[in-house]
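As the work plan foresaw, our protein records have gained a structure token line. A representative record is set out beneath this paragraph:
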Amino acid sequence: MTLQTAGGACALICAATYIVGFALLTTLLAPLDYGSARVEAEKIVAFIATNGGLLITWNAIIYLANALSLAVLVVSLASRLSPRAPGWASVTHGFGLIWAALVLAAGMIANVTVERVAAIQGSDPLAAAALWDVLHQVELGLGGGNEIAGGVWIACVAVAGRRARALPLGLCGAGLVTGASGLATLWPAIGDAAGALFGLGAIAWFIAIGLVLLTGDQPRTDAGR
């Protein structure tokens, strides 16, 4: 398996983690208003008491599996862009690994939070609720509640892909739109809508990138033509 093929497979895995995340968020986790500003710590603590394993699985998929796959995709794309746009390839490499690290950290904190809350909720449910509320904010700050790092990376890949002529024009345009929606999560008034748009756009973008890497040829340098 080449690095490009591995990157393509990991892009599809990233898309799958988003799809699974949305599916659980709108079904099994829907009664909790999980992921919205209306979520109540007490409801989460009660849910963890009987369904903590579900939250740990969800965190493992949307954070851990996503971050590890994303890291491989980042390196693969940087390698694809490097022959014709080495500077931009380095920029995408840096921003991409920053995003992957933030997502991984958010996932580890989220799962430790679930485990700790489960351990103390029986004896002190109020303390458990307070603990979840505080650590959940840390999780959201790292990567669950904003998409700034992801938006910057996808936008940079779009710019680099166009300059290097290494990615289709339509895919680069979609990347700019998706990246802009990620940056828009910076503003609270439109944060939820922008986050949903980013998530849906990222699913399509990851799938398209995956297909390009799995089926496309590696671009050559101009000197090699």
User: Anything to note?
Assistant: Residues 3-146+207-217 form one domain. Residues 41-81 form the longest helix (41 residues).
